[in-house]
Amino acid sequence: MSYRPESSDVPLEESSDGPDRRLIMRLLVAAVVVVLAILFVVQNNDRVEMSFVFFTVTARLWVGLLVALVLGALLGQAAEALWARRKRRKAAS
């Protein structure tokens, strides 16, 4: 005897009545982000001198902005993790 899933058991992404709208939206948003990123790189391709505390480096502007963005995101994630840890410790005591 084989198992035949009910219509509510089938995830939306595997439905046979057509492509999933959420998947299409994700792909569309990803394509827009890629196009915007390419435009950003093309427009900010000048070499600039960047100074930070003890060192100075010459690099493309978009590289400096990307490094700043990534470092900011990492610091934000670290702060959020520390905050959640603090809340868990308070709740446990």
Structural description of this entry:
- The chain has 93 residues and is α+β, with helices and mostly antiparallel strands.
- It has one domain (12-92).
- Helices cover 59% and strands 13% of the residues.
- Strands 1-2 form a two-stranded antiparallel ribbon.
- A hairpin with a 2-residue loop joins strand 1 (47-52) and strand 2.
- The longest helix has 32 residues, at 61-92.
- It is flat, with a radius of gyration of 23 Å.
Radius of gyration, in Å, reads 23 Å
Number of domains: 1
Largest sheet, strands/sense/barrel: 2 strands, antiparallel
Q: Care to count the β-strands?
A: 2
How much strand? 5-15%
Neighbour order of strands in the largest sheet: 1-2
* Estimated helix fraction: 55-70%
What is the H/E order? HEEH
- Overall structural class, as computed from helix and strand content, comes to alpha+beta
What is this structure's SSE topology?
Elements: H1 21-43, E1 47-52, E2 55-60, H2 61-92
